[in-house]
Design brief:
heterodimer; A: five-stranded parallel beta sheet; 15 helices; B: about 650 residues; alpha/beta; six-stranded mixed beta sheet; five-stranded parallel beta sheet; 17 strands
């Protein structure tokens, strides 16, 4: 396993790291879209994600990494198992799966297992990237350049949480619940609105212009590259702390209450911004709740809303394609008005 | 350095020769650095046409003794990442796996000839492996396999073509440009000191020593600061650049047996890593640096500068760094400040840039966005174009190609059955054949592609005095309408503006309409009407787009009153003739066009020119959203 840059050692890009942590607390928020120039640490942050998350319990030998505690949503392999036998569980790290730009459909959804077919003549399904990403993260770099046919596929799976394969005489249905993480440079092409909608939060990153910060980043990067093991060990404690914080927040999440006033605020904000559908409100609600939990609060307050609203709503505004004012600023402005009212 | 002084002697007065020789010298040093640290710095992007110069560099590369794997553009993902060896599997009927090219390149280099033509399907997994140092698990290999390699991307693109994929290029540390170098230049140099080529390959002992040194190389805070500041000053936003520059400088230091970074190391990194990435002229000194001497101005750098390695404003003594035992016992060591170092690096970077680049940088205001960006999603022209559709049963032949994998998949489940059924004449040969995979005609699947119907709108916008003063705003409004339409259709846009003595490519083909709008808003008006130049540029852009498999559509917004010739000088008659000429050219290209006449009264001149071009003609007073949408639609359906 190649070593990744420790998450705790990432400096700058606070909005991005915050969004990632919030999604780690509550995966049902539905993923993060990171937009910005190259070389701003997008990939570094996403690939470091596995650091943040504690290992999960999976059914041993299950190719889809089913949860032993939840037999209901099990995959075909687990369903076929005799219910009387005891399920053996094992711990595995959370998957962060890379979906490369040029991936074939076979690779993404899965296909007939050629090896078995050729050597034994058995028709068996070989799971693809979507199966690997189940209960983990699916990372797509340059998501705005992804081929349309793959986008269609992703939109469907991301919404339904299961992957349905009907091809080559195979008929397989398996769970594929993952957090979609995308990154890209919007100047090179725009995202389909449908796919945009599937991302819960969106973040805009810019290259830090502060010289001190840049020097600091380069220093850490250099130290990591010279001796990854030592660097990782150096940051191990901080990483553990971060992991604990997220675990605590997860436990707290169910207890966090949202008052009716807050709900009203959310609704008014979305109404004023004219976002389509109710997904905006739902996401905003979940994000503020997760953020409050992360901050150690048990009730959602206006300040939480203030931090999360730009992230959750920025990409949902019905927008004139030629308007280049920052959507985040628009959200903030509306929020001020709503709060003042 | 001995080599440097020899070089200095040789290049006495001729700046361009000296500059190209410096480039060659740097290219050779780059080879040594590659040898020392093949994967740490990402690799090399070499821009040079096919020819003796590149051949010489490549043969030196081959003699380095590193694993060198060539990836042709026709390689498929299976071959790249490893997978089933289909040929062998089919031949023997037994499953045979093969290692991918990327695994073979472990601890070595991957060479990409014609890197600018590589499809994204090949580049994306390559970059993923480059980033993560491993090839991800696939269908066939459940565990990821570690592989660390550097990339040597050979860029042969012409100046008007899009170069190497920007995402890949960004990850490669050293960018070398040997386009200006002629073979005789190197020959002269080689005769001068013949031993050069022999010195490139380091002996195993020297290599081991240098690698050990590399681990210990230290950069002082001032140096790091200078590195980041120079990158920022040259308009390089990405943080990969200074990171890679540091790595390159460290390798350069290790190569020269130092474990403290030196001006020479920083200068080399500035020349080969930072300078080629520069997007802007170093800014004026900011508030906190106001006391410092301003960055070199134009006339100073246009002159041949002193060798970058020994700029006069920095102390000639090696700067005392963090390692006191190595520092010379200087009674009063003059500690170079970060600003000094930065100035030295920027000067080194600028000195290595060819003069025309400097001019371009000096005149540029904002960040440059080359036409290299953004097209990586575009399918390139090939034997078959378009996005692949699922293969379907059918006989190969004619235009249909066999889809091997799908055919095998179709045949695979029936193997048992077919092996069991005896053929008509059982014999020895048959028995041998039986062990192979039995593929029947009904298994054949063929490949299908869907042609991309994407098109690109080329907007030629007249911003001259005659058309512009009152009408430019209206024309811009019309363009916005067009842009909104193309947004709905997910077309790309490319804007050519013309006024005065030149036509300007305001915006290379992009899908980002925000950029298109921004580019247009800042467009000033006034001056002559160089229509011929505009049509020529539109023609060139159309050819470029065609090569990428995109259908170009031209929309001209002008009154057609050309009064500037192809040479950029005034003269109504000649200008009209030139415009007619290029209009004819457009017609012969067979692409569609729409002429929106922006003059107050519809004019015969524009109408005639539109007819010459084979363009539809629409007078501006009638330009309303509805009508224009209609005109564009009919144009598109014609083009599709």
């Amino acid at each position: 396993m190649a070593l990744t840059f420790p998450f705790a050692a990432i400096v700058g890009q606070d909005e991005m790291t915050l969004a990632i942590q919030v999604v780690a607390v509550d995966p049902s928020i539905g993923g993060v879209l990171v937009l910005g120039d190259r070389g701003t640490g997008k990939s570094t942050a996403v690939r470091a994600l596995a650091d943040l998350l504690p290992p999960i319990q999976v059914v041993k030998g299950c190719p889809y990494r089913c949860d032993p505690a939840k037999p209901a949503g099990a995959c075909p392999v687990c369903q076929a198992r005799d219910p009387k036998t005891k399920v053996v569980a094992e711990r595995q790290t959370v998957a962060v799966v890379d979906l490369p730009l040029g991936a074939t459909e076979d690779r993404v959804v899965g296909a007939l297992d050629l090896e078995k077919a050729l050597s034994q003549g058995i028709k068996q399904f070989s799971p693809g990237l979507l199966a690997q990403a189940h209960r983990g993260f699916l990372y797509i770099d340059e998501v705005n350049l992804l081929d349309d046919h793959l986008v269609d596929l992703l939109i469907d799976v991301a919404a339904s949480g299961e992957n349905l394969v009907e091809r080559e005489g195979l008929s397989v249905r398996h769970p594929a619940r993952f957090v979609l993480v995308g990154s890209g440079n919007p100047e090179e092409g725009e995202l389909r609105p449908q796919l945009l909608d599937r991302f819960g939060l969106s973040v805009q990153v810019r290259t830090p212009q502060d010289l001190k910060l840049r020097v600091d980043i380069i220093k850490r990067r250099d130290a990591f590259e010279k001796d990854p093991v030592a660097f990782k060990a150096l940051w191990h404690k901080d990483n553990q702390k971060l992991q604990k914080r997220i675990l605590k927040a997860r436990e707290r999440l169910a207890e966090v209450t949202v008052s009716d006033d807050m709900l009203m605020l959310c609704a008014r904000l979305c109404q004023q911004l004219g976002t389509d559908g109710l997904r905006a409100e739902l996401t905003l609600l979940r994000a503020t709740r997760a953020f409050a939990a992360l901050q150690g609060h048990l009730a959602v307050q206006a300040e939480h809303l203030q931090s999360m609203a730009p992230l959750a709503l920025r990409h949902r505004l019905r927008r004139n394609p030629l308007d280049d004012t920052d959507s985040g600023a628009r959200v903030q402005r509306s929020l001020q008005e709503v709060l003042a009212a | 350095m001995k080599r440097c002084t020899a070089l200095q002697h040789m290049a006495q007065d001729n700046t361009s020769t000296r500059q190209s020789l410096d480039a060659w010298h740097d290219a050779l040093i780059s080879l040594q650095i590659l040898q020392l640290d093949p994967h740490g710095l990402g690799g090399v992007c070499l821009r040079a046409p096919h020819g003796p110069v590149r051949e010489r560099w490549l043969s030196a590369l081959a003699s380095l003794g590193l694993p060198l794997v060539k990836v042709p553009g026709s390689a498929d993902a299976e071959r790249l990442l490893g997978g089933i060896d289909l040929a062998h599997t089919l031949q023997t009927g037994q499953l045979r796996m093969q290692a991918g090219l990327l695994q073979q390149a472990d601890q070595g280099l991957v060479c990409l000839p014609m890197a600018e033509r590589l499809p994204p399907a090949l580049l994306a997994p390559l970059m993923q492996a480059l980033d993560s140092g491993q090839v991800a698990a696939t269908h066939h290999a459940s565990a990821p396999t570690a592989t660390r390699f550097g990339v040597v991307a050979l860029d042969e693109s012409l100046p008007d073509e899009s170069g190497v994929n920007a995402a890949l290029q960004e990850r490669l540390g050293l960018w070398l440009d040997l386009q200006a170098l002629s073979p005789s230049d190197i020959d002269a140099r080689l005769n001068d000191n013949e031993d050069d080529a022999l010195h490139i390959r380091l002996s195993p002992g020297a290599l081991a020593r240098a690698r050990e040194k590399l681990q210990q190389v230290q950069a002082s805070d001032a140096q790091l600061h200078a590195l980041c500041a120079s990158a920022l000053g040259l308009g390089i936003g990405s943080l990969r650049a200074p990171s890679l520059a540091l790595r390159v400088a460290s390798a350069h230091a290790a190569l020269n047996g130092r474990h403290v970074l030196d001006d020479e190391d920083l200068g080399f990194a500035a020349r080969c890593v930072l300078a080629p990435r520069a997007t802007q002229w170093p800014a004026e000194p900011s508030a906190e640096q106001a006391a410092e001497p301003p960055p070199p101005d134009n006339d100073e750098t246009a002159e041949p500068r002193p060798k970058p390695e020994t700029p006069d404003q920095t102390p000639t003594d090696p700067p005392p760094g963090d390692a006191p035992e190595d520092a010379p016992p200087d009674p009063a060591p003059q500690e170079p400040t970060a600003e000094d170092l930065q100035e030295m690096m920027v000067a080194a970077a600028l000195a290595s840039l060819p003069p025309h680049m400097l001019d371009a940088l000096a005149t540029q205001k904002g960040a440059r966005s080359g036409n290299t960006s953004g097209r990586s999603g575009q399918t390139r022209a090939g034997q078959q174009r378009g996005r692949p559709l699922p293969p379907r049963p059918g006989r190969p032949g004619g235009h249909a190609r066999l889809h091997v994998l799908a055919t095998l998949r179709a045949a695979a489940p029936r193997q048992r059955l077919r092996q069991a059924a005896p053929l008509v004449s059982p014999g020895d040969t048959e028995a041998r054949l039986m062990r192979r995979i039995a593929i029947r005609a009904e298994d054949f699947h063929i490949q299908r592609y869907q042609q991309r119907s994407s098109s690109c709108l080329i907007l030629a916008l007249d911003a001259s005095g005659s058309a512009a003063l009152q009408r430019l705003a209206e024309a811009k409004g019309a363009v916005e309408l067009l842009l909104q339409q193309s947004y709905a259709r997910r077309d790309s846009v490319c804007i050519v503006a013309f006024r005065g003595a030149q036509a300007q490519l305001l915006l290379p083909a992009t899908r980002s309409l925000v950029r298109a709008k921004r580019a247009m808003t800042g467009l000033p008006g006034g001056g002559g009407t160089p229509l011929a130049l505009a049509l020529k540029m539109a023609h060139e852009q159309a050819a470029l787009l065609q090569r990428q498999g995109v259908t170009p559509i031209l929309v001209v917004l002008s009154d057609g009153r050309a009064n500037v010739t192809l040479q950029g000088v005034g003269g109504r008659t000649q200008a009209q003739a030139d415009a007619q000429n290029w209009g004819q050219q457009w017609r012969s290209s067979g692409h569609r066009a729409l002429w929106i006449d922006t003059s107050m009264q519809p004019d015969a001149q524009a109408q005639q020119l539109a007819a010459t071009m084979g363009a539809s003609y629409l007078p501006m007073p009638q330009v309303q959203a509805q009508r224009m949408a209609h005109a564009m639609d009919s144009l598109r359906t014609g083009a599709a």
